[in-house]
Amino acid sequence: MAFWKKFFKNTSTVNKHNNACNIEKMCPQDSKLLIKHLDNSGQTLDIYVSTCKNINLYELEQLCDSVGWVRRPLNKVKIAIDHSFITISLFYKSKDNKKLIGFARATSDTVFNATIWDVVIHPKFQGKGLGKALMDQIIQHLRYADISTITLFADPQVVSFYRNIGFITDPDGVKGMFWYPR
């Protein structure tokens, strides 16, 4: 087994206490202020954006839980994040900690195409323009990389959100196809 380990990235199980993204240590200069003084239920918060891939997976799991998503194995979530072309996180700072409130990622062939995945905003922060801001950030990064075909999959209840920010169903009538193991 040791022979094969040198061919693969470390995909061991996630260490619950050692996977938080300490911005200053793991991703220096990575976060930037996105929205100053966002009013959230009477609380004024500054919202930051980060492209750090070293995300606290337990905090991401809680964020996904808050919108009712099915849980996925954290070791696989880590691999998906590690293999993503870009990840975008939204958070606010509370004392010395950051609180994750939004996330999205994209995979890409790095030249022509990218697909956006796992777009999520905490319900307490929905309806404040953060979903649009998150999508603007990820599209901006993809366009900066000169990727012109950007796709995503959307649940029926959020199709209008994506239409309002410029996504369309394929004008050529191309339909996505799926293969699932039986």
From TrEMBL:
Organism: Leiomenia cribrosa
Range of residues in the leader sequence: none
Gene, per the UniProt record: ycf52
Pfam families according to UniProt: Acetyltransf_1 (PF00583)
Single annotated GO MF: N-acetyltransferase activity
Top-rank taxon: Eukaryota
Gene3D superfamilies per the UniProt record, alphabetical: 3.40.630.30
Protein name stated in the entry: N-acetyltransferase domain-containing protein
Matches recorded under SUPFAM superfamilies: Acyl-CoA N-acyltransferases (Nat) (SSF55729)
PANTHER family tied to this protein: ACYL-COA N-ACYLTRANSFERASE, GCN5-RELATED N-ACETYLTRANSFERASE 2, CHLOROPLASTIC
GO cellular component, one term: cytoplasm
Lineage: Eukaryota, Rhodophyta, Florideophyceae, Rhodymeniophycidae, Gigartinales
Coiled-coil regions, chain positions: none
Keyword tRNA-binding: no
